[in-house]
Amino acid sequence: MKSKRTLRPASLAAMILLAGMATAASAQEVRRSYIVQLVGAPAASYGGEVAGLPATKPAQGQRLDISAQNVQAYLSYLDKKQSNVLAGIDPANVTARYDVVLNGFAANLTDAEVRALKKNTSVLNIEADAIQTLYTSYTPHFIGLDKAGGLWSQLGGQNHAGEDMIIAMVDSGVWPENTSFADKVDANGVPTHAANGTLVYGPPPAKWKGIGCQIKPGILASNCNNKLIGIRSYTQISGVHASDFNSGRDGTLDATGGHGTHTLSTAGGNAGVAASINGIAMGNLSGIAPRARVAMYKVCWSTAAGQSSCPTSNSVSAINQAVKDGVDVINYSIGPTAGGGAFTDSTEIAFLNASNAGVFVAAAAGNSGPTTGPSANLGPWHATVAASTHDRTIGAVAHTGAGGDYVGASVNQTPVPTTSLITSTDAAKAGVDLSLANLCYGAADGTVTLDPAKVAGKIVVCTRGVSARVNKSLAVAQAGGIGMIMADNGVGLVAEVHSVPTIHLSAADGAAVKAYANGNAAAVASLGVAQTRFGDVLAPQITGFSARGPNVADNNILKPDFAAPGVDIVAAFSPSLTTAEVTALKGGGTTTKTNANMISGTSMASPHIAGMAALLKQLHPTWTPAMIKSALMTTAVDTYDDGLSSPLPWSATATANGRLPWAQGAGQVAPSSAADPGLVYDAGALDYARFSCGLNLGFYSAATCSSIGSITPQNLNLPSITAANVLGVQTLSRTVTNVGDTASTYTASAAMNGFDVLVSPATLTLAPGASASFTVRLTRTTTPLDTWAYGSLVWSDGTHNVRSPLTARGAALAVPASMSSEATAGSKIFTIGTGFAGPMTVDKGGLKAATRTTDTLVGVNTGSAATICAANNSTAVKVRTVSIPADTLVARFQLFDAETSGGQTPSGQDDLDILVLDSAGTAVAGSLNGGSNETATMLMPPAGDYRVCTIAYDTQTRKQTTYTMSSWIVTKTDMGGNFKALAPATAYVGGTASAGMSWSGLATGTRYLGAASFKVNGVPQGLTLLEVKTNDPVPVAINSKPVNPTTE
What we know:
Largest sheet: 8 strands, mixed
CATH topology of the domain at 814-1029: Jelly Rolls
Shape: globular
Number of strands: 58
Helix content: 10-25%
C-alpha cells in the first residue's frame, strides 16, 4: 500500500493523462472492477485535520450522527475531492462511492486507467474487486438466554429482548413474507402479516435514517414494515440465476437462495414462529434478539450454476450505507473460500470505521476448516466467529445385517426396509476411477461412476468429500438406488434433504458399515425415519468445517475470537417457486409462500453473535463495540475436545484441535454471563490508529503517526493475549475497566505451559467505571523454540472470573516474511528481533527474473486437485516435473488472470489452479482460488523432484485455454540485480537490530524474486522474501472458488 500523503487535489497532469487514456481506450479493452481508496479519512474516523472542517469521528462510546452539520459538511468536502479524481473516468464506469467507512470509489477500469491512478497523489491504494462467497430456534435455549436470570429476563423477557436495536445483515437478501419479519400478531400472539393482525411494533427508532424498501423487481414498498425496516441491494452480478432477483429479495430455494433470510432471522427474527422441515416439527423459532428491528443489504447473488457470488465493492457499499442508516450491529457471513486476508482489505477498513462509528460488527470465520485454509475476517476491531455444535440433533438409525445400529444426521421421513447394501466402489462402472466412485460422482459432477445394474433397488454407501453432498444422493437415485448411507470425512455431520432417503454417519461408523459391506453380496441394511434427539453428542464442540487460526494477517492477533452455535441451525428460508411465480414476483406480484430450513456454517454462528451484541447494547447503551466483544470473550467457556491433532499448514507448530484458541478463540460464548463481566478490555479509534501506525499499514501519514504514537500488535488492548515471537522474554501491557456497580478488588492468576508468566501488579482495586493497567511478562523456559504454548490469565474478585486466553511462541529471530517494490533500483531497511546471544549470518539468493512457460489446456476437470494431479490422465491438466536443488531458498509458481486466454476477454475469466506434489505424491503447496490469480510458494523446500500441476476447472469457452506460468527457483548461487542482504554480526537476547536489502540495474517489464535467510549459529531461523515487479503491475483479485450451500 502506498504511504499516506498530504491531501491535495489531483494534479492537472494526472487528470489530463486519465482523460486521454479514457478517450483512447478501445471498446475491446478489458475493464475490471477496482476499489480505489483516496487520501483522507472517511467521516467515521476524521479528526479535524482540514482547516475549517471540525472533526466528525464520535467520542468513544458514542454513535456517528450522519445528520449532524459537521458530518454533512465533511461529506460534501469528500464528494468534491472524489469528483476531482474521477474527472477523467467515464461516469458510466463508476459503480459506487464511499465516504463514511472508506473514502473512495469503485469503478470498472482498464489497466491504463489503473496505472494512471497509481501516479495520482490523491490515491492511497487500489484494490482489485475480489469475489467472495457466503459461509454457509433451539439455540437460544442451549446458550442460556431463556434461563432464570438469563439475558432475556434481564431485559424484561423475550418480548422485550432487542427492543429498539437495529441489526443490519450484509448478505444474499431476504424473503420478507416470512413471519419472522412480521410486525403484527394474530389473536393468539403468533406473528402474522395478515391485514387484520394487531400491530406490535411502533415506528422505527429515531436513529434510523434509512429509506425503507428500495423498490426493484421483486420488492415492493409494502415488503417493509415496522419490524423489517429496510431492504437495499447493490450491483447485480452478470449471469445471475433465473430464480434470483435484481433487488433485495433473496433468491428462491431453486437458486440456492435463502442464506440471507436464514441469517437475518437467526439474529433478530420474531419469536413464536412455527417451523417444520421435511415434515418434522421443529418447534417455534426465535431470533437471538427477537424484538430487534432488522434491515437487509443484499450484496450476493446466485450464479446460473447456483453458486454464491459476493463482490467486495458491494459489501463496502452496504457497510457504508448501514452506518449512515443508523444501525447498531452489522453481521457479515461472507468471506474468501480459502480463508485468509489482510488488515488493509477494503472490507477490513470498512469494518474498522464502522467500529469507530460505534457499530458492532460480527463476521464469520469461514468454512475452510480444519486444515484447508485459515480463518478469514481478521481485523481486531470486529468479532470473528467460529462454529460450534449444540446437543439437539435431527437423526435416524441405520441398521445393518451385522447387527449394528448407527445413529446419524438425517431428515428422512421415508423408512427403507431391510434391503441389499453395497459400497459405491463395489457398485462402480467398469473402468471408472475408483476414487471418484468412492465419492459417488454422478452426472452433476461431470463423471457418472455408479453402474445402474449394480445399484438398482439397493442402499449405497458413499463417502463425503469434494463433490456436493446432495449430488451423491442424486447420483444414487439416477442409478436406481433407493437409499444412501454417507460416511463422513471428519468435517462433521449435516442433516439435509436428499434425493433418496439418506443417513449421514460419522467417519468411524461409516468405516464400520463399509467394512461389513465391502465385497459382501449378502450385506443388507435398513434406514429409519428422522427424529429430534437430545444429548446424543457432547456439546459444544468446534465443528470440523470451522476455520482455524493463527491469524495470517498477523499472528499476534488471535482469530477467531469465540464460538457460537453453527451446526444444524433452524431458521427462516426461501421457498421453492415455479418459473411463473418468479416471473410474477419480478413483475410486481406478491406471494404468501415461506419456508424454514436447517443449515450449518460459520454463517449461522455469526448472526448469533450479532443478536447477542444487540442485547448487550440494549442492556448497556454506553458500551463500545470493543466492550461488548470483551464481555463475550472473557465470560466464554471451553468447548469439548474434538480429538483433532492435524498440523495447520499455515503455522507449522499449531494444530487443529478444537479446544485450542486457533479453533475456539476464547471459547463458547455465554451471553447471560457476558451481561455482567466485571471487567472489560476497551479499545477505540485512537488505539486502532496507533496499532495501524505500528504495523505501517498506510492509513495515516508519518506526521500523524509521530503525533499519536504507535503500538505493536501484541499491545493492542484486546481480551486475548498472543505473542508470536517471544525473544526470550517479552512484556505486554493491558488496561481493564470496572463495569460493575461496586468497587472491587481483583487478583490475577496466570499459567502457560513452558513459560513463566508474571502479572504486575497482581492485584487491582477499581471503583465503578475506573480503569487500571497491568503488564504480563512472558519468559520462555521449557517450550521449544518455534512451538506454540497455551494458557490463560484470570482476574477474579470472588464473583467474576475474567478469563483471557494466553498464546505464545518462542523464537530465536523475528523477521518480516516479505517485502516488495516496483523500482529497478532501491533498498529496504527493516527491524529484526533477536532471541539469542551470539553470531548471526545471512544467505541470499536472487534477484531472479521469472521463467515464463506457455501451455494449452483442453477441456475442464471436476473433482479433487490432488487426484487429478496424481492421475495425470486428462488434457485439462498440465504436469511438469521440476527438480529443486539442495540450496533452494524459495520456489514459486504463479498464474495471472490476465495471462490466460480467457482472462484477456472483457466478459470472462478462466479458472486455473496450481498444485505441487512431492515425490511421495503428497501435496506440499497449492493455490485453489476462483479465477486464475494463483500463487504456490515453498520456502526452503527439501531437494528433490516435484510435480507442478496446472489444472483447468473452468475456461471461457469450456473447450481450451492458453496460459503462461511464471516460476522461480531461487538458490544461494543465484546472483542478479546486484542484490545484497545485510544483518548485524552479533545479536543479543531480547534485542532488536537493523537489517537491509538493496538492488540495482533491473530491467523494466519483469517480475523478480529474491530471498534472504537469516541464520543463528549456522542454522536458518528466519526467511524474508523480496518481490520486485518492474512491470508497473495492476492489482489482482484473489477470488473465491464458487461454492453452494451443500458443497464441501
